[in-house]
Design goal:
With 163 residues, the protein is mostly helical. Among the domains are: 68 residues, Arc Repressor Mutant, subunit A (Orthogonal Bundle), CATH 1.10.10.10; 41 residues. The chain has a two-stranded antiparallel sheet with strand order 1-2. Helix 2 packs across helix 3. It starts with 28 loop residues before the first helix and ends in a 13-residue tail after the last helix. This is Transcriptional regulator.
């Protein structure tokens, strides 16, 4: 009988992977795919458009459910001005990744050690970008501090000239 044994290479049921194992996506994978579809365009998308972007292998109701979950997590916004039922991302990919990194640092017992481990694993290009960004941030901070020191609001008040 085809498809009955663990080593059987006969026909598989829809939704199964090799050797009859489930071909289900991992946790959060559908949400990531929906967000990626939204990030890939500059306009809000309807669930049907997202379904088509993802290849059409998901049911419309599944896409709608994922959008509802993303909306409940404040990761997508319903388009209030344009087409009814269209969604757009609330944050770009970089913002969402940065938030995840901050949360990871807050969860650990030693955020400095965690950050040190993260930075030591950067590739040369990422390290160079980080160094350039930190240098630019440092210059901007120092410029702002110097401007604040020279600010007339912080200068001692002068007595009005008599005349």
């Amino acid at each position: 009988m085809a498809g009955t044994g663990p080593m059987d290479t006969g026909p598989m049921d829809a939704g199964t992977g090799p050797m009859g194992t489930s071909a289900r996506r991992g946790p959060g994978e559908l949400e990531s795919e929906v967000l990626a579809a939204l990030w890939a365009t500059d306009r809000p998308l309807t669930p049907a458009e997202i379904q088509a972007e993802l290849g059409g292998d998901l049911a419309y109701n599944t896409v709608h459910t994922i959008l509802k979950r993303l909306y409940d997590k404040a990761l997508v916004i319903r388009d209030a001005e344009g087409r009814k039922g269209a969604y757009r991302p609330a944050k770009n990919a970089a913002q969402l990744s940065a938030e995840a990194m901050h949360k990871a640092l807050e969860r650990g017992p030693d955020p400095i050690a965690t950050l040190q481990q993260f930075v030591s694993g950067l590739g040369p290009d990422e390290e160079a970008a980080l160094r350039a960004f930190l240098a630019a941030e440092d210059r901007a901070r120092r410029t702002a501090e110097e401007r604040d020191e020279r600010s007339p609001e912080q200068a001692p008040a002068r007595a009005p000239a008599e005349g």
